[in-house]
Amino acid sequence: MTPDTITCTECSGTAHRVGYPPPDDEPTAGEVVPYLCEDCGHRMDVVMDEADDEEHLT
Predict the structure, then answer these.
(1) In the prediction, which pLDDT does 57 show?
(2) Residues 13-32: pLDDT tens digits?
(3) Domain boundaries, position 29
(4) Measuring CA to CA, which residue among 41, 39, 46 is closest to residue 4?
(5) Pairwise CA distance, residues 31 & 19, whole Å
(6) pTM of the full predicted structure?
(7) Are 41 and 34 spatial neighbours (Cβ–Cβ below 8 Å)?
(8) Is 43 helix (H, G, I), strand (E, B) or coil?
(9) Rounded to whole angstroms, how far apart are CA atoms 58 and 51?
(10) What's residue 9's pLDDT?
(11) d(Cα 37, Cα 54) in Å, to the nearest integer?
(12) Does 33 or 1 have the greater pLDDT score?
């Protein structure tokens, strides 16, 4: 499962996912998951890769 929050690369604040797909439609390798920092407003687009897919399966 893709995390709901990550650490912001600009200010180290908490960044939340922008929108949520249906529970049975998690991102796969190559898809972009956008995050927005609650502290500084910085947007981060995280590209999922195969390692992300495998990590979330364990």
Answers:
(1) 40
(2) 999 999 877 777 777 888 88
(3) 5-57
(4) 46
(5) 14
(6) 0.75
(7) no
(8) strand
(9) 11
(10) 94
(11) 26
(12) 33
